[in-house]
Amino acid sequence: MPNILLINPNSSRATTDMMVRIAQEHAPAGYTVVGATAANGPSMIINEVELAAAATEVEATWRSTQVPHAGVIISAFGDPGVMQVREASRPIPVVGICEASMLEASEGGRRFGVATVTPDLVAAIDAKAHALGLGALYTGVQLTPGEPRGLAADAGALEEALSDAVRACLKDGAQAVIIGGGPLGQAAVHLAQRFDVPIIAPISAAMRRLSACIAGGLAAPAGTAKRA
């Protein structure tokens, strides 16, 4: 049975387990999602210093895995290490949850925003949207109040705070809203059921994109390293 490797750049094994459960629900028939957790770093990446450090950790995690795999998902919203692993692993496809969710959210020319908990990553999220050539459709980020890790530890409070951020994105003119963060994966799944507009759960979006890559060889997104 073929495997899909999901790398959690955050160092929380419980978060990895949650991510794997979500990814498995959208995996191609017959594929098993196997999680790998970063050995070092914070339990949740919340700033650009941690994001930059995570790129090296992601590559090290990928190189140390002993599990044969047909594709890779990198499950932190800043996509740390995506380009390095994509270049080193080709022709095996590698997908980041930020790029996948932005590409899905913008399908058909939809305007899209991001609801998230990490104010210190807004510049990185903005830069990703522009690097993918989606700046004209991107309405920006709306944030939850409070300290990100503390909020993420309270599932009920997290979901309610993100729902307010989603509404703020819609007021900005977004026609689809991404829940921006791998550790926010379960909240994203729940919120998708609460709104009439598309709420993009990034882990699910990444698995859908990876499945398409495995089935038909989608090209790498603009602004990223291309596979041979």
TrEMBL record:
Top-rank taxon, per record: Bacteria
MF terms (GO), sorted A to Z: amino-acid racemase activity
Instruction: Output the Pfam families linked to this UniProt entry.
Output: Asp_Glu_race (PF01177)
Which Gene3D superfamilies does the annotation name?
3.40.50.12500
Q: InterPro entries per the record?
A: Asp/Glu/hydantoin_racemase, Hydantoin_racemase-like, Iso_Racemase_Enz_sf
Q: So what family is this one in?
A: Belongs to the HyuE racemase family.
Protein's UniProt name: Hydantoin racemase
- Organism of origin: Ralstonia insidiosa
